[in-house]
Predict the structure.
Amino acid sequence: MAANLPTDTGAPSVPDLVARAEAWMAADVDDYDVADLRDLVARTADENMGHLALAELADRFSGTLQFGTAGLRGAMAAGPNRMNRAVVIAAAAGLAAFLQAEAAGVRPRVVVGYDARYRSADFARDTAAVLVAAGAEVLLMPAPGPTPVLAFAVRHLSADAGVMVTASHNPAADNGYKVYLGGRVVTGAGQGAQIVPPYDARIAGEIARVGAAKDVPRAESGWTLLGPEITDEYHRAVATLHDGAPRTGLRIVTTSLHGVGGTAIARVLAEAGFTDVVPVEEQVEPDADFPTVAFPNPEEPGAIDMALALAQDAHANLVIANDPDADRCAVAVFDPQYGTYQGAETAGSQGWRMLHGDEVGMLLGWEAAQRAVQAATGGTLACSIVSSRALAAIAGAHGLEHATTLTGFKWISRAPGLIFGYEEALGYCVDPAHVRDKDGLSAAVAVAQLADRLAAEGRTLLDRLDDIARACGLHVTGQVSARFEDLARIETTMTWLRNAPPSALADSPVNSVRDLAEGLNGLPPTDGVVLLTAEDTRVIVRPSGTEPKIKCYIEVVAPVDPAASAEELSAARVAARKRLALVQADLRSILGL
C-alpha cells in the first residue's frame, strides 16, 4: 500500500522485516509512527525480549490491512497491517481515484465524519486533504459524532460517497474506516448505504496502486466545515418518527459507553417527550480509553452492568445503551421471572436483563408492520440470515414482504421496499428513508415510545413479546462464540465443520446441512454453514467479519397456542431456554471450548 510493500503472507526473514520497516519509515508522514517503529526495530535486538518485538514486527509487515465491505479496521500502529495515517492516506487516494472514474468528469462530493477515538480526527483531516487535492468537494463534519448522522448526511446532502472514521464497538486500541456510496455513484435502494461488491474490490484495486504516503498530494485547505445545521437536520428527521402520544413519565436510564452518543441520545429522547432520563454519568462523556468497560460492546458480558445497577437504584422502567459510535441500540428491562430461566445469561442486577437483539427486532418489526397495515402502504421487513426467523413470520401475519440478506447492514439496507430492517447484533433501521444503515438513536426513540404506550395500558415490552409469540410462535435465540489468536484455526474449524458436521444437537438429529459458500435461496455465497435439526432448531456457524471469532447463532422455535396464558408462555420459554442451553453446550464441546 503506502510504501509499495509486497503483500505475500509467507514468513519473512529478520533482515527482510527490517528492510520493510525501513522502507515504511522512509515513506511515512507521521513522526510519532516513525519513532514508534524505529523503537520496535531496535527492540528486536534485545537478548531477553527481542522475540516479542520480532513477533510484533512480523505481524505488522507480513501482510496489509485489507480493504473490504467493512472498509478498514484494526489496531493503531505503524505498518501496513495496522491503522495509521499512511494507510488512511492510501485508502483516501484509492477512494478518490475510484470516484473520479465513476463521476465521469463531474466533481464528486464526499462527506467525512469521525468519532472520538484516538487519531480519528487526524484520519478524517487526512482523508479530507487527499480528496480535495484529488479534485473532490469535501464536506467535513464539524465535530466527533455518531455514525448514523454521517449516514444521514450522505443521503441528505446527495453525496457521492461518505467516510466515517470509527471502530464502532471495538477495543480502545482499534480504529476503522467505513465507506458509503450514494449520489450519482449508487442509486436506488442502496443509495447512501455501505459498500458491497464489486465496489469494495474496485476501491481496493485503486488503493493497491497508490505509492508512498509522503508522495500523495494533500491540500492544506479547501474542504467545507459543516455547521451544526447538519445535526439539526438529522434530529428533524428523527422527529418524523414521533407518535405524538402523551407521555406517562417513563424513567429511562441511558449509557453511551464513553462514546459519542451521550449528547445525542439525551436530545432525541427529550425531543420525543421523555424528560425523566438518567444517564450513567461515568460513561456519558467521550473517552477514548473506555475506562469503565473491558470491551465497549453492549453485547459483551458486563458492558452495561453500570446501567443495570443504576436502573435498579433509580427504580427505572427501561435501560437503553448505545455502542461508542451510536449505531447500535441495546435494551434492558426488569423481568420478574428472569431468575427462573434455565441457561439464561447472568444479569448485572437482579431481575434486570438485556433483551436479545432478536427480541428487540421482533418488537420494532411488529411496530413497523402495524404501521404499514394501518397506512395501507405495504413494504418489506428485512433481516440478516443469522437473525431470527420470527421477522418472516411477522411479515406473513401482516401480509407484508420479507427479505433475508447476508450479514451486515450493507445488505439489509438494500432490500427493495424496505420499511424496517434489523440484525441480531443490536442493529436496527427504523427510518430507511433518511438513514440507510443501523441507527441506535432513532431505534432508541422507537423503543421508548413503544414502552411508554404499553405502560399507558398497564403493560410492558415483555407483554408485547408474548403477543408476538402467540401470533407467530415462540422464537428463542442465543450464541456461542470462539475467539482465536491463530487466525488459521478459523479456516480449519470451518473446513472441519463442513466435512464432519455433528449428527445431532441436544439429542435432536441434524436433518439438514447447508453450505452458505454455495449460496442459499438466492443469496450470494458467503462463509458459513447452516444446521437444522428435526425439532426445527437452527444453528448458523460463520466467521465474524470484524473480529477473530467464529460465531454460532442458535434459534429454538416452539409452536404456541394463540390463546396461551402468560403462565403457559413462561413455561414454554423455560423449556426453550433449556433446549438452547443444551445446544450451546454441544457447540462448546464441538469447538473445544
